[in-house]
């Protein structure tokens, strides 16, 4: 069968649950670690980023309003779907990162397990991050975490899949919608993830995946007034500073790039980073009218 | 407003349609007004006003003509050392003591108020309550302090309570066409919730109460700043809606000048000057008077007074 | 004769204000390096209260170095020892609360009733609360061995000078940080008195440093390389500038900024309590409150009834001498703030809203603004969108709960909101949908050290108060 010409995939963006080409009509060449051509990836434009924000905002209401149980089921479904396409991702990650099959498999397995980990978090965050507060007065007072809104993410550049999953999953586990700019040189696992998400009960628009140059696209996301937070995980120091300055215009929550071992226990830092705390007060008082004193 | 009392259902719908009361907010407002600082000239004014608003009360099984006459003497001349001291608004006694009291205060502007309608429980048949009322009026009572049937109220029989108040109001009429003023006691401590107190206030006012009064003084919780504030809000709103002015009488548990001043602040800042007269605001109290007198002596002499410098009656 | 309350002034003699104050650096007061000073005045009379030092960039550097030096020992102290210092501070604040209340009223212009019954009790409570955390950090949910950040640079506003100091300093110290704090230019005195409380408590030198000064001092502080944490409470504009300043650094940032809180009144509200809540929401502290309920959203079906009640209640507000115990509304903090309030209120008239204020006589000297209500306000009006930070209420109407939520959320801010309804399910549904950090249902402007406070959107990020408030001062 070696003489059979294989069918190549046209990699597309994942925006609003659909697979558009870049509005710019441009692509860029993606190679493996040895420089061999793998595919042409869409070179997203600022307009693609804008469309992605619109899609994310549209999806945010229903996703943030879904029950935590439901969100957990959806995230678990992603893990199930990925497990079925494990070999494909192992191959893509191996190509993208120049890893052996075994090492690439370890990355993919960890990524699948990460979805499972975050699937289990959705209905526990509120109990960890919130609770009642014993205020000194006749009031019921409860704090609960709520999603920040639309989060734009620069995906890690080196860890094309585990790193990517590690920055997407915590954002949507908390009920946010995400626009992620994939690793510039290794975007294919990210674009393929879009195909998995599309068949995993993740509502369209909850995750939007762009490929291209973060330095080109992300400044408009960092400055976008309808984006509530940014995770600059994959941005270099200089770009990150520029983006953080732009993010200040509407006081986005900012997670700065830091050295991260993506294979380590992720903890709750990224999960909590995109949650607001809402505190609600309501009077309680006594059962009858006899409580008053002079 | 006639249509709201046309049937039990209409009355229920009206009373349950009144805005709810948030207890913490109400008590918070009452407490905040309780921090007003009433000093010097304002205090002197308020003390005299408070004295003039007292229904000086004795409602004991052990009451005797002698006790009642002593009470009346105190009402007429609260501080023998200062004849400029205002008289109390009224004395308040049981119906069988009305004649004695009326005799004792005759010729003065001190009124005789009588509790009636099987005070304090109100557990008697309507004809008995009406007879009780008529008896007191006939004996010379200027004012009748009736109790509502709390059992009927709590059972939701609002129209029964309404009709009973109306019947008692009728019983307050004298042959010459005049009438004793009717104070309607809710026994707020038994109604228990502020929503009930607001409903009872409107029920009483709709039925023709001249005054609405918190309590008998015979249960654990009597007048409080919060329930009085709530009743003041009710008379304010009733006046705005109907043009009819209704008085308020907190009773029971108000013992000190400081307490009384807090109630006057409630009146001042909720319904204002129009109610700052004993025509429209009363204190049902007994020991309060001596504390007011001691504070009054302090203001005029600059030194603290003591219980031996006011009369024990 | 009407029941006129006679003047009931709180005695000024409980507080002894020195003619001048230096900067509190490394445990002692010293002059500014360049000798510059500025005056602080009483907003209710324009009387000069004292002269304070204007900290220079050099002074900032000195203070940060002192804090850095102190950090080593302070962070190494057992938490239980840090706790005891904070408990001491809390107790001394309680002991000196009357003095501090009078001082705060003099320097800020807010009524003594508020400094006495709100500010000072909350200040002491805040130190008590965080004192208890100092030796329990490993139980706070931030990992088994959470570490302090280092030196915190803190810049606070003039609306609750001592309370905002407490919100900043108590959690910072409990977590093991040292601080350099800059009080607002117009209200420096209570922070300087706090320095004296630190002395009485025996707090190690350099743990708390107080730099008085203007905006340039604050800018130098947040830009200083030697700090690890910036905490700011104040305007959104300055907050954005600070966010840009710290961009690309490792400085942890928390911001508590402006607001345009919607106070939503449904037709089934407990109306008398709602009126009190509206009054408290916008006239507490002359409306100079970031979480003020400055937009009243009232259901059209009860609009007339509610506005009548509100106007009647506004007419009973007592505006005047802040030291009088019966004053409800005091002075505006500064001429500058008064000008801003005046400008925005005038824009309301110019844009066609209807202005109403009760008859009230304002004192001749000082900075005053009568409690004011605007009706006929639409979402497009500046007075419906911009933070006025004054006693000015904009009234808008709505027809359905969905419309109320949409209008409430239609703001760049997201700090506070109020809901008035007797229907529990509606209260919870609306609270759930509001994009605001603090939602007061059937109450307003309640604060507690255990209760996290902070905003969504451009109202800032991070929380102050409660367990959440520790996170801002821990390396997590």
From TrEMBL, chain A:
The keyword Oxidoreductase applies. Signal peptide: none annotated. It holds the Pfam family Aldedh. Keywords: Oxidoreductase. Transmembrane segments: none annotated. The keyword Oxidoreductase applies. Residues 24-255 form the Aldehyde dehydrogenase domain. One of its GO terms (molecular function) is oxidoreductase activity. InterPro entries: Ald_DH/histidinol_DH, Ald_DH_N, Aldehyde_DH_dom. Gene3D superfamilies: Aldehyde Dehydrogenase, Chain A, domain 1. PANTHER family: ALDEHYDE DEHYDROGENASE-RELATED. This is Aldehyde dehydrogenase. It comes from Streptomyces mashuensis.
From TrEMBL, chain B:
Keywords: Lyase, Schiff base. The keyword Protease does not apply. It is an enzyme of class 4 (lyase). GO terms for molecular function: deoxyribose-phosphate aldolase activity. GO terms for biological process: carbohydrate catabolic process; deoxyribonucleotide catabolic process. Pfam families: DeoC. Pathway: Carbohydrate degradation; 2-deoxy-D-ribose 1-phosphate degradation; D-glyceraldehyde 3-phosphate and acetaldehyde from 2-deoxy-alpha-D-ribose 1-phosphate: step 2/2. GO terms for cellular component: cytoplasm. InterPro entries: Aldolase_TIM, DeoC, DeoC/FbaB/LacD_aldolase. PANTHER family: DEOXYRIBOSE-PHOSPHATE ALDOLASE (PTHR10889). This is Deoxyribose-phosphate aldolase. It comes from Streptomyces mashuensis. The lineage of its organism: Bacteria, Bacillati, Actinomycetota, Actinomycetes, Kitasatosporales.
Automatic annotation (TrEMBL), chain C:
It comes from the Bacteria. Pfam families: Aldedh. InterPro entries: Ald_DH/histidinol_DH, Ald_DH_C, Ald_DH_CS_CYS, Ald_DH_N, Aldehyde_DH_dom. GO terms for molecular function: oxidoreductase activity, acting on the aldehyde or oxo group of donors, NAD or NADP as acceptor. Residues 31-475 form the Aldehyde dehydrogenase domain. The keyword Oxidoreductase applies. Keywords: Oxidoreductase. PROSITE patterns: ALDEHYDE_DEHYDR_CYS. Belongs to the aldehyde dehydrogenase family. This is Aldehyde dehydrogenase.
């Amino acid at each position: 069968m070696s003489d059979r010409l294989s069918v190549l995939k046209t990699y597309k963006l994942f925006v609003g649950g659909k697979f558009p080409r870049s509005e710019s009509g441009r692509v860029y060449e993606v190679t493996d670690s040895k420089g061999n051509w793998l595919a042409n990836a869409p070179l997203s434009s600022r307009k693609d980023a804008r469309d992605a924000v619109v899609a994310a905002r549209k999806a945010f209401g229903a996703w943030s309003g879904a029950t935590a149980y439901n969100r957990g089921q959806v995230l678990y479904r992603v893990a199930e779907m990925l497990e079925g396409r494990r070999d494909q991702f192992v191959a893509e990650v191996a190509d993208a990162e120049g890893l052996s099959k075994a090492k690439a498999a370890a990355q993919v397995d960890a990524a699948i397990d990460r979805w499972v980990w975050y699937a289990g978090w959705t209905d526990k965050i509120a109990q960890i991050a919130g609770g009642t507060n014993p205020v000194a007065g006749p009031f019921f007072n409860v704090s609960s975490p709520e999603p920040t809104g639309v989060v734009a993410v620069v995906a890690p550049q080196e860890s094309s899949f585990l790193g990517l999953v590690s920055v997407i999953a915590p954002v949507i586990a908390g009920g946010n919608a995400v626009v992620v700019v994939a690793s510039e040189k290794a975007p294919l696992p990210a674009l393929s993830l879009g195909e998995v998400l599309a068949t995993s009960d993740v509502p369209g628009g909850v995750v939007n995946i762009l490929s291209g140059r973060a330095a080109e696209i992300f400044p408009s996301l960092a400055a976008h007034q309808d984006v509530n937070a940014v995770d600059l995980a994959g941005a270099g120091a200089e770009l990150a500073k520029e983006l953080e300055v732009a993010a200040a215009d509407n006081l986005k929550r900012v997670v700065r790039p830091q050295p991260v071992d993506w294979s380590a226990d992720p903890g709750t830092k990224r999960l909590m980073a995109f949650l607001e705390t809402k505190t609600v007060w309501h009077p309680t008082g006594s059962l009858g009218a006899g409580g008053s004193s002079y | 407003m006639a249509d709201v009392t046309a049937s039990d259902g209409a009355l229920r719908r009206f009373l349950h349609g009144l805005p709810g009361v948030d207890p913490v907010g109400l008590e918070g407002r009452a407490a905040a007004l309780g921090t007003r600082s009433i000093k010097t000239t304002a205090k002197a004014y308020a003390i005299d006003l408070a004295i003039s608003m007292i229904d000086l009360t004795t409602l004991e099984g052990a009451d005797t003509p002698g006790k009642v006459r002593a009470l009346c003497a105190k009402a007429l001349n609260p501080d023998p050392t200062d004849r400029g001291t205002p008289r109390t608004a009224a004395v308040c006694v049981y119906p069988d003591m009305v004649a004695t009291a009326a005799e004792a205060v005759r010729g003065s502007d001190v009124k005789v108020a009588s509790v009636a309608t099987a005070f304090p429980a109100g557990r008697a048949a309507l004809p008995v309550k009406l007879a009780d009322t008529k008896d007191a009026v006939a004996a010379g009572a200027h004012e009748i302090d009736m109790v509502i049937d709390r059992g009927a109220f709590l059972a939701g029989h609002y129209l029964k309570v309404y009709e009973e108040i109306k019947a008692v109001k009728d019983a307050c009429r004298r042959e010459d066409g005049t009438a004793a003023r009717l104070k309607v006691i809710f026994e707020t401590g038994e109604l228990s919730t502020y929503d009930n107190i607001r409903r009872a206030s409107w029920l009483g006012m709709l039925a023709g109460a001249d005054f609405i009064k918190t309590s008998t003084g015979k249960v654990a919780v009597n007048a409080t700043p919060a329930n009085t504030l709530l009743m003041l809000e009710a008379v304010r709103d009733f006046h705005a809606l109907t043009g009819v002015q209704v008085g308020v009488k907190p009773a029971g548990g108000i013992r000190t000048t400081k307490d009384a001043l807090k109630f006057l602040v409630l009146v001042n800042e909720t319904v204002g000057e129009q109610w700052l007269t004993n025509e429209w605001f009363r204190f049902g109290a007994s020991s309060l008077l001596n504390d007011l007198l001691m504070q009054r002596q302090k203001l005029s002499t600059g030194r603290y007074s003591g219980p031996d410098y006011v009369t024990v009656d | 004769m009407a029941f006129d309350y006679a003047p009931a002034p709180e005695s000024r003699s409980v507080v002894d204000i020195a003619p001048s104050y230096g900067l509190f650096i490394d445990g002692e007061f010293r002059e500014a390096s360049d000798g510059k000073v500025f005056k602080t005045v009483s907003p209710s009379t324009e009387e000069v209260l004292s002269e304070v030092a204007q900290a220079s960039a050099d002074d900032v550097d000195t203070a940060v170095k002192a804090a850095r030096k102190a950090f080593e020992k302070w962070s190494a102290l057992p938490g239980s020892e840090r706790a005891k210092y904070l408990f001491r501070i809390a107790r001394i604040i309680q002991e000196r609360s009357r003095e501090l209340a009078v001082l705060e009223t003099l320097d800020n212009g807010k009524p003594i009733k508020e400094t006495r019954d709100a500010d000072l009790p909350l200040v002491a409570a805040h130190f008590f609360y965080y004192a208890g955390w100092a030796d329990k950090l490993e139980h706070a949910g931030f990992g088994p061995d959470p570490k302090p950040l280092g030196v915190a640079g803190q810049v606070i506003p003039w609306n609750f000078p001592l309370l905002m100091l407490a919100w900043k300093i108590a959690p910072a110290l409990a977590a093991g940080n040292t601080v350099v704090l800059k009080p607002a230019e117009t209200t420096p005195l209570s922070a300087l008195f706090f320095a004296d409380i630190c002395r009485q408590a025996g707090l190690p030198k350099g743990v708390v440093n107080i730099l008085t000064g203007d905006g340039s001092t604050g800018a130098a502080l947040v830009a200083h390389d030697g700090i690890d944490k910036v905490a700011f409470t104040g305007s959104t504009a300055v907050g954005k500038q600070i966010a840009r300043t710290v961009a690309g650094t490792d400085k942890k940032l928390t911001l508590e900024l402006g607001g345009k809180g919607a106070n939503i009144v449904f037709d089934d509200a407990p109306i008398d309590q709602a009126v009190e809540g509206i009054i408290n929401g916008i006239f507490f502290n002359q409306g100079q409150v970031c979480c003020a309920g400055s937009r009243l959203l009232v259901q059209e079906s009860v609009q007339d009834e509610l506005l009548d009640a509100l106007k009647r209640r506004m007419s009973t507000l007592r505006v005047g001498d802040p030291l009088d115990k019966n004053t409800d509304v005091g002075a505006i903090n500064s001429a500058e703030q008064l000008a801003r309030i005046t400008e925005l209120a005038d824009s309301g008239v110019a844009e066609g809203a209807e202005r109403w204020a009760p008859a009230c006589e304002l004192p001749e000297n000082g900075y005053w603004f009568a409690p004011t209500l605007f009706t006929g306000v639409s979402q497009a009006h500046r007075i419906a969108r911009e933070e006025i930070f004054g006693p000015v209420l904009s009234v808008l109407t709505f027809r359905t709960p969905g419309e109320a939520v949409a209008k409430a959320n239609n703001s760049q801010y997201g700090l506070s909101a109020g809901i008035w309804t007797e229907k529990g399910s509606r209260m919870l549904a609306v609270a759930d949908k509001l994009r605001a950090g603090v939602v007061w249902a059937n109450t307003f402007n309640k604060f507690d050290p255990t209760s996290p406070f902070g905003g969504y959107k451009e109202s800032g990020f991070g929380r102050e108060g409660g367990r959440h408030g520790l996170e801002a001062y821990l390396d997590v």
